[in-house]
Amino acid sequence: MDVALFHDEAGRRTLDVAGAGPDWAAHVERHLTEEAGEELRELYVSLTRAQSQVVAWWAPTANTPYGGLHRLLFGRQPGVPEVPDQVAVRDDEYTAGVLAALAELVASAAERSVLAAAAAPQPAAAPAPARGAPLPTAPSTPTGAARPTPG
């Protein structure tokens, strides 16, 4: 980390760009704590502003241990109001179990996302005719040729 952005004891927004020194570790810790709180605030805003339905995606990535949704779903313990600032990502079986239990408790649906097989490439569409050019016509049936009839 190169900079630490945080509020000091007086509530002033402070930017520490030193990268070292006697207060650096405390400033970084304050920065990370404030960032973790901001993640939860943004999650709260996004979840409470929906007018009819919330669809939330969760995926294990490099940032997942610090994400508000992950920390809320997998880090908060029953009866404990605090949400930890970081929660390790567990294996798929554990994750599926927690999401299933939560879905049962709150009458929601946890759906597993499965990647589809890659689709075959589609041929490129013919370019549109130039403005003012005659439009192509459908091939005609030669005179006297039999035309298929609906059967």
**E-strand count:** 2
Low-confidence stretches: none
Shape: extended
- State the helicity in percent bands: 25-40%
* Biggest sheet descriptor: 2 strands, antiparallel
Distance between the termini: 74 Å
Task: Write down the overall mean pLDDT.
Answer: 83
Class by SSE composition: mainly alpha
Reading side by side through the largest sheet, how are the strands ordered? 1-2
Q: Specify the number of helices.
A: 3
Radius of gyration, CA atoms, in whole angstroms: 29 Å
Description:
The protein is mostly helical and about 150 residues long. The chain is about 30% helix and about 5% strand. The protein contains three helices and two strands. The chain has a two-stranded antiparallel sheet. Strand 1 and strand 2 (about 15) form a beta hairpin. The longest helix is centred in the N-terminal third of the chain and has 25 residues, at about 25-50. The protein is extended. The model has no long low-confidence stretch (mean pLDDT about 85).
